[in-house]
Amino acid sequence: MKTSQMPRSAPRRPSKGGQRAAIYVRISNDPTGRAAGVERQRADCQALADRLGLTVSRVYQDNDVSAYSRRRRPEYEALLADIESGLVQTVIAWHTDRLHRRVADLERFVALAEARHIDVRTVTAGDLDLSSASGRMVARMLGAVAQHEVDHARERMKRAKLQAAAEGRHRGGPRPFGWGTDAMVLAEDEARWIRQGCRDVLAGRTLHAIAREWNEAGVLTSTGKSWSYHSVRTVLCRPRNAGLVSTGRPDRAGLEIVGAAKWQAIVSEDVWRRVHIVLTNPARRQQRGNALRWLGSGLYKCGVDGCAGVMRVAPMGRSKPGSQTPRRYLYRCVDRAHLTMSTDEADAVVLALVRRRLSRVNLTKMAKGDENGQTAAMHAERDALVARLARFEEDYAQGLVDGRQLASTTTKVYRALSRLDGQLERSVRRSPLAFLVGSPGHIVDSFDAAPLDVQRAVLDALVEVRVLPSGRGRERPLGADRLRFVWR
What we know:
CATH architecture of the largest domain: 3-Layer(aba) Sandwich
Shape: elongated
CATH superfamily of the largest domain: Resolvase, N-terminal catalytic domain
Number of strands: 13
Radius of gyration: 32 Å
Helix content: 40-55%
Number of helices: 15
Largest sheet: 5 strands, mixed
Structural class: alpha/beta
Strand order of the largest sheet: 2-1-3-4-5
């Protein structure tokens, strides 16, 4: 009997008294992309349909999609929708585990099949009448066996990965960016971008800027995709970069270092730890959406007594339709909106002053960064706070302190931890002035030619800028008189 695949919107109508049949095929892993596995399933299912005298109106095919993972199966969802709408009355599959390997999916399918009186025919597991209690019992038994097999396979896989981690070997998965196909030997053309990315992060550059530069240079991820904020962050946070084996997400809490790896390292452990501190600091503000546009947004501070809130950019009024006049923008205090200053006016003054400062300071000395050992002391203080928090939680569990005491203590400890994390981030940063040291040409010219995120990092390293109130009448200050500079 011949078969034909028809669009979902117009399935072929069977002869009077016949049943509308559909074939569902799926394979979990298809690294070649040739879909040979699903094609073999389709051929066997079609042969079964021919023997039963069923006309197949459509073949639903999910290739390289696991039924146990939580990934969406588009064709499976289309099959369920067509069953719900009455377009399918018989489902043909190679085995029931091609339809579902999770109990939750099975129960969903059983409920729909029972309501719509669907027959299930399989090549290797026989027929299932899900409209009867015995048929549903058999389906659930087969589903339980399938889930047990998957759970057992996951346990074996997890144990194998733990053993590989303990031995410092690669645990499988996609090729990591920076290494060759064996994930052990460096791919130097990629490794150099990781080294540069680490230097950029420690110099205060944004991940959006790093991703943009990598994309503009034609650098692709190990899977051939463009870079984003999140993918750059994940790659630079990896302990693998320092030749370390870990468990847990590299950019999340709960990361645990297992030991030294056997693959080649790209950066030193000290550099990786510095980068990790910067990128995982909860107080770090993530610049999302549009690229940076303003020199002082988030850096300038409100100079009103008792405020010290940050200044961010807001548009001034509304632009008229068809107007050729450029829209104006203001720096505005975000805490109380009681202070504004023109972005053009403020930035012009700040840039002029920074240029004068750069032409006079000893940049080589300033660019060395933290070398006084304070970082180790802050790490020790942080560890002591974490241990103190753990002790209080244990005391609460044993009834030695009440909830009010626990809440009061944890609030204080978390505040102290937040303060230390900010200090640690600043201390481990490589000075952004290092970008300018050794640059060709005059140092001021190098600053002017640098990307905006570098200029912002240099500004933040040199000075704190406070915007003062404008005042009233004849005493109203203008331009530089409205800015106060506290040099670092």
